[in-house]
Design goal:
The protein has 155 residues and is α/β, with parallel strands linked by helices. It has one domain (3-148): Flavodoxin domain (Rossmann fold, 3-Layer(aba) Sandwich). The chain is 37% helix and 21% strand. The protein contains four helices and six strands. Strands 1, 2, 3, 4, 5 and 6 form a six-stranded parallel sheet that branches. Helix 1 packs across helix 4 (131-148). The structure holds flavin mononucleotide.
Length: 155
Amino acid sequence: MERAVILVGTETGTAEDVADDLLEAITGAGMEAEILDMEEARSDAFDGSRAVVICTATTGDGELPENSIDLFEVLEDEKPDLSGVVFGVCALGDDHYEDFCQAGKDWSALLQELGAKEIIDRFEIDGFPEDEDIDGAKEWVGQAAGKFTGLVREG
Ligand SMILES: Cc1cc2nc3c(=O)[nH]c(=O)nc-3n(C[C@H](O)[C@H](O)[C@H](O)COP(=O)(O)O)c2cc1C
């Protein structure tokens, strides 16, 4: 079965709730998946055996949530070759802030720089997720699952 990991970057828990919905939808689309708090994740989450879904909020002035900083910096420092990795980004933010969804954009840029392939346009949620945002996120991850299928090697 195709596998995915949903990596969550959150400050106050909203992205965790969105990740639960993404998990429901991606498993419904036939993938085996789990959610990992970025705090608990290691760079081997990007070993190519699983598609990666980044689900992250932005905090401060366009900053990464605290729980995701170590993982981001390890990848920045170690610069692993991620050319076997496919990913998508679901970014939570608020467009009242100048740097809208900046953490999601930073993840897109870093993973691409390391060779990973972003196989679907970033999905952005503006403000506290309403039902329509959750529906959109689920549809988005369902489309991502379709694209992941066949691209992720069996792990
Ligand atoms: C102190 C603070 C700073 C924020 N800074 C930004 C920001 O720079 N850019 C942005 O798009 N959203 C920003 N947001 C909005 C959050 O990303 C958004 O509310 C998100 O849903 C929170 O998710 P979380 O509960 O998982 O942390 C900020 C929110 C707070 C409370």
